[in-house]
Design goal:
mainly alpha, three-stranded antiparallel sheet
Length: about 100
C-alpha cells in the first residue's frame, strides 16, 4: 500500500548530497583544472587562424561582448585598429564564419 501520509520513511534524508554526483563533479573539476594549465602550450601549437578562432570563442567568458561604434569594432577596451592588418583580417574572417 502506498504511503499517503506525506511522511518519509527510509532512504536519504532531505538535503543529503548524492555521493556519485559529488564524485563526478570532483573528477570533472580536476580534469578541467589540468586542461587549463595546458591551454597556453596547446594554443602555441596551432596555426594563427585556429588560435584566433579559439581565443574569440573564449573572449565572452573574460570580457564584455564586442561593440561596434562608428564602423570600428572594439573588444572590451581594445580597439581592433591597434592590431596588425593581418590579425584584423583573420579576426574578420572568423567573425563571418557560419557555425
Amino acid at each position: 500500500m502506498a504511503n499517503i501520509t506525506g511522511k518519509k520513511y527510509g532512504g536519504r534524508k532531505k538535503g543529503t548530497p548524492n555521493k556519485i554526483t559529488k564524485e563526478t563533479k570532483e573528477l570533472l573539476k580536476n580534469i578541467v583544472d589540468n586542461e587549463l594549465e595546458l591551454i597556453p602550450d596547446n594554443l602555441n601549437n596551432l596555426d594563427t587562424l585556429d588560435r584566433l578562432e579559439i581565443l574569440i570563442k573564449l573572449l565572452p567568458y573574460v570580457m564584455s561582448k564586442m561593440e561596434v561604434k562608428n564602423n570600428q569594432i572594439n573588444i572590451g577596451a581594445l580597439p581592433l585598429s591597434r592590431l596588425s592588418n593581418q590579425a584584423t583580417s583573420e579576426i574578420n574572417k572568423i567573425l563571418e564564419m557560419e557555425y
